[in-house]
Structure formats: C-alpha cells, structure tokens
Amino acid sequence: MSGGLATSVLRLRGVGPKTAERLAEIGVRRIVDLLQILPRRYVDVSDTTPLDRVGELVGEEVTVRGTLHGISRVPTRRRSLRIVRAELRGPEGRLACVWFNQPYLARSLRDGQTVLLHGSVVERRGALRLENSTFLERKSAPAGTTPAVGSGAAAGRRVGRAEAGATNVLLEYPRRGELAPSALRRLAQAAVDGLVEATSGGADLEASDPIPRSIRDRHRLPSRLQALLQLHRPPVDATSECIAALDEGRSPAHRRIALDQLVGLQLGIAARRAVRDRAAPRGLRYRIDGDVRQRAREMLDFELTAAQKRVVREIADDMTSPHPMMRLVQGDVGCGKTVVAALAALIAAESGHQTVFLAPTELLAEQHASELRRLFAGRQRVALVTSESGDVDRDLSLASSPRVVVGTHALLSESVRLHRPALVVIDEQHRFGVEQRERMVARGERPDVLILTATPIPRSLALLLYGDLDLSVIDELPSGRRPVRTDLLGPKQRGRAIATLCEELAAGGQGYVVFPRIRDRSETEETGEHDGVAAPAGGPMPSLESLAELYRQRLSPHRCAVVTGETASAERQSTLDRFRNGEIDCLLATTVIEVGVDVPNASILVIEGGERFGLAQLHQLRGRVGRGSRPSRCLVLAAPSTELATHRLAAFRDHADGFALAELDLRLRGPGELLGARQSGSADARLLGSLRDAQLLTVAREVAEQLWNGRDAAARAELLAAFGVDADAIGFGQGA
After folding, report:
1. What CA–CA distance (Å, rounded) separates 313 from 75?
2. How far apart are CA 561 and CA 572, in angstroms?
3. How many CB atoms sit inside 10 A of residue 641's CB?
4. CA–CA–CA angle 565, 570, 574 (5° rounding)
5. Dist. CA 587–CA 504, nearest whole Å
6. Is residue 396 a contact partner of residue 419, using CB atoms and an 8 Å limit?
7. Backbone torsions φ then ψ of 329, nearest 5 degrees
8. Checking DSSP bridges between strand 586-589 and strand 169-172, what pairing results, if any?
9. What's the gap between Cα 604 and its chain centre?
10. What's phi and psi for 114, nearest 5 deg?
C-alpha cells in the first residue's frame, strides 16, 4: 500500500465489484475515506465480572466468561422477531443470555463452548439476563460436540477486538448504507494492516500529510496517519483513561481528525469566495425608488423593529450591487424574518423579476405562502408548489403570472418551469444540502440568494459554516411578545402537566402536546440493537400512539386533534386551519409543528420525552407559544440519564435567548450537532458532536488561512482534494 491513505479501496483484500459499489454509495473510494468512518464506541473489556456479582450491576455493561449450554431458538408469535437463548455457566454461577434477530447463532454456537461476552445486564420479571451481548472470544467446543441447532461450523475466533492491537478494547462500528458494522470493521482492519505493513517496509506515508509538521507541532497534533491508526487500532498497552478518552471523542487522534474536517469546511468556503470574487458583474438590475418604498409601506400594517429595518437596508444594498447577494439572515423564533424576505421579494417583483422561496417542509411552505399572500394582498400572485399540490408539472414562468413561487424540494424538479428567478430565498438552510442549494441557484442567472434560519448559531460557528455568506442578525423581537415560563417535570408528573394544560384550555387558551415519535417500537428496537450490541437501556420513549387516548380522556370535553408527518397534506392543513380558527383546543403532534405554525392564542406547550430533543429543537418548539398577549407556559416531561442531559435541560429552562442557548450548547457539546452530516463529506460528522473543544474552531480558521494564502490556483486545487473538497463541484478552476 505504497500510496498510503490515498490508495484506492479496490486494493483491499475482499473488496470486489459489489462491495466497491456499496462503498462508493457512501462516498468511500480511498483508504482515507474508509478510515474516517470511526468506531462509534470504544469499550474497556479488560476486567471480567464474576457471575455471582452480575446482580449488583443491573443496567450496566459487563464482560463475563463461561461455557454455553442449552442453546435453543425461542418460538415467538411475531414473524419479525427471532430469539436465541442460552445459559452461561461458570465457577461462580449461571446467567441467562438472549440474542434478538441473530438466528445464525443457533447454528454456530455449541454446547460446552467457552466464550467471553460483553453486554448489558437487564432484569426481566425478576430474572437476570445478558441481552444482545457481543462475542469477544469463542473457543473451540469440546471434541465430538455438534452445533446446538441446525448445521454450521463453530467459530473459534475473536469478534470486535482491535485485531493485532489492544486486546482489552472492543470497537463497535456504525452501519453505513448497505454495509453492516461487521463489514466496516473487517475492511477498516484490512486497511490498517496494509498501512502498518507499508510503514514497516520503510515507506514514508506521513510525507503526504496536508498539514505541515510545523503546524502540527505548534498545536500538539499527531499526523493524519498516526491519528487514524490509533483510532482503529488502539495501542496494546491502552490504559482505562486512554480508552475512556477514545470513547468520549476527546483523544488527540479525534482532535486531529476533527480539525481536518473543520479545515476542509474553511477551505471550501475560501474557494467559493474566490469563485465569486473573480466573476464578472451581472446584468440583473432592480428598481428601488419612491414608488417601491410606498408599496412597502402599504404592504405592512405594523412598524418594523429597528433590527428588521437594518437588515432590510443590508439586503437592498446587496441587491443593487453588481455582484449577486449571498446573505444569511439569522434571528430567534418570532423575530420577523419572513417579513424581511417578503420585502426583498417585493423589490424583485416591482422590477419585473421572479422570487423562489424554498422551504424544507410542506407545513412551512404552506405557512409562508399564506403569510406572503396576506402581505401582498393580491398585488402579486403567490404560487405554492409541493409534492401534493399538483403544481409540479405546471408552467410557473412569468407568462403564467406568479412573481413569487413558494415550495418544498418539489421545486428542485426539472419539470417545474421557473422564469430565471432573480431572488432565491431558502428557509432553514441546514435542512438542505449545499448541492440542493446550488441546484436551485442554477435555475436562475446568477440570482441573489437570501438564506433564513431560526436555528441560533454562535457567531464563531456561523463564520465557519457560512463564511462564504454575509451575515445579518435580527436581534430584536416585535413589541408585545411575552416571555414563556418553562418548567421541568419528571415522567411521573404527567398528571400535573395534564391538569395545568386542562386549566389553560378552560381559561380560553390553546395548546400543543409534542411527542418524540409517533408509535411504540418493539423491545429490540427500544434497546437500540446494533450489530448484536444493545445500546445502554434508558427509559421507554413516550409515543403519540401510546398516550393520545390518555390525553383525550383527561382533557375532555376540550377538543383534541392529531398532526404528524404521516398526516395527509390536505388533512393536516384542514386541522391546522381549524386550530387557528379556535375549532380545536389542543394539538397532539410530533415535531412536524416545530416550524411554520403561528397561532397567537396558543399559550401552553407540553413536551413529552424532553431529553430526546436537542437544545435548538426544544427552543424552536417553545417558539410555538408566547406569540400573543396571553401569558404562556412550556412544560417539559423528561428523564435525563446523564449529567450533560440534565445541564442542557436546566439551561433550556433558565434561558429564553436562543443565542445564549446556542453558545452554551457549543461549550457543552461542541459543534457537531450544528455542523451535521451535510457538511462532513465522507467523514464521520458524529466525531464533531463528541468534541467539547470550541477552541478548535479558531485553530481551524488559522490553519486554513495559513494553508490557503500564498498558493497558486493549481496548488489550491490539490489542497482542496487533500481535504476531500470537490473543487469542480464549486466551480473552482485554474483561474481562481
């Protein structure tokens, strides 16, 4: 493997055409792409627990040794559920073992076989058992024994260990596309074997590291090669502290790979700016005169806030410049971003141009279309295009008269005939990929782009994520908004929450109850089974399906209705209209109402399973109430299982400012949740979620500047490739 990390995965043993196709589907073509899919967990399995002490560790993970007996399949009524059961025996006692949906174990395991297992201890109906345990070792069964059920060879092997590395670390890999965790583990270890063999043979594989040694030494970072080898094959002498650092994502190796991802983001932004800066002036022109200003005054029946006026001036200046606008408007829930975008659309319409307004959900698109129609009051035609609207094949050119077209992803379809839109407004950019944004922009001739987001993003992170955009902040709410009182309750206080909700409905208010999911899952789904390993069990996640009838009964005679992402568009719109009109008192919903629902009389929100939501999402949900003159409340039923989750929920209770919450979340959890997989290329975005080092953002900007400045176009293109950035996709050519 003399090519090092840049070697094609086709060189790996066991990678045939089918596997190569599956790897390509998840963006893996080189060894470096493969190795940036990191293990999701590193488990210390150095100490075994005696079987007679397992009862003291219910709910925890243990490593136990013994021999298997009584291996059998368990009949079930459900065709989708298959269970294998066995008993583990040792000098200290016995322990039942159960595996869900792994029927092959009944064929490969043998009575009397000695095994080393790692898994979670649970108590079911007063009996202890080990569920979905991972086999760390399987020794050959005694001579003359046969498989317990069916046929198949016994497996005398270790599973999941860092092969040829630490024997006390269990690596659990994620699932990617059609590749099972076991397949990714096998491929990653084969790649590590090849790299180790090449370096042992004298190859200098670190020479191609895109970050020079001088910068690495200054920030105490390992080389990219060293980092990836450590992450996929921890050292043989790894201590418990070292394993904990790996599992929590705070090892030097994690820091280096996270830095690579952040630097790649910065370089991509620098390349986009270079493309924009070298572009010739455009021919698009807007008219902003006394008549347009009068139309704007007539359109509004209220006074803009000072922050809104400032942002409108910034947008108008951009639209009259010779280069296309690329601006991000950031503002807290309810600050009036849609009105600002409507005024930009007015400028375009009065100059004879079309505006396209792209929203991530049908509900939000419908809300925007309704609001824009109200604001334009018939002066400009507003068309709505969604997958269920029937407009997907319509001609939406100016000849058919719509100056404003609002829609969802359906607008990206080539069958939607737009008229070279001059202004593209994208709401909640993080719900769309960069590629989707650029596809929409390509529908016009170098149009102005205005991006709106109600997701509070700390300035340091906004500069990293959206450094190719100019930033405007609406940091002021319209007058008359009242603060929302937030209370945290335990799951056993549901009765108190329902009583409070009932009192508010009786007083004339309206309310929401939000659930983290629609329906219950099976026991195996609830445990988070993944490649034979159960995630640490928490409490059962509340669902709308399991609790809707309880809420209906307890809230009677108040009128309740259900809205979820599975609700048909026409039915959902009808339900929301009835809610706005006061014909429905309480909505039982999922996070489909997170954005796009504005009912001033809604004054109380109950959130079930609050620990299951991120801070930004909780803040968005809370923004559904407090929009009118009524005092409003938010009741969060939660069962946080970690100290971090408890801190985050307490911060949500104590802070109403979305930007303050975002800064806190950045300090507590790092940038991963806001960066998201959309920004990660082929690398593992969850790596960033585990980092709590916000200072890394500053380091990334400094490193990117040092690498970018002083290079010619060809060297910059090579640099982009080294960090996984597709230069051609963003139009970065030799003339940059």
Report:
1. 70
2. 10
3. 14
4. 95
5. 14
6. yes
7. -105, 115
8. unpaired
9. 28
10. -85, 130
Q: Which of the four pLDDT bands, split at 50, 70 and 90, describes residue 693?
A: low
CB 458 within 8 A of CB 659: yes
Residue 216 phi, psi dihedral angles, 5° rounding: -60, -45
Give the rounded distance of the alpha carbon of 616 from its chain centre: 12
Q: Can you tell me the distance from the alpha carbon of 724 to that of 33, in angstroms, rounded to the nearest whole number?
A: 9
**519 C-beta neighbours (distance < 10 Å), count:** 11
Count the neighbouring beta carbons within 10 Å of the beta carbon of residue 468: 18
**Separation of alpha carbons 18 and 245, rounded Å:** 36
Q: Give the count of beta carbons closer than 10 Å to the beta carbon of residue 675.
A: 22
Report how far residue 270's alpha carbon sits from residue 265's, in angstroms, rounded to the nearest whole number.
9
- 497-517 pLDDT, tens per residue? 999 999 999 999 999 999 999
How confident is the model over 160-175, as pLDDT tens digits? Answer: 555 545 467 888 888 8
Distance between terminal CA atoms of the chain?
A: 34
Calpha distance 553→397 (Å, rounded): 51
pLDDT cut 70: percent of the chain above it:
85
Domains of the chain: 4-43+185-234 (no CATH), 47-167 (2.40.50.140), 310-474 (3.40.50.300), 484-655 (3.40.50.300)
149 DSSP β-pair partners: none
DSSP state of 412: G
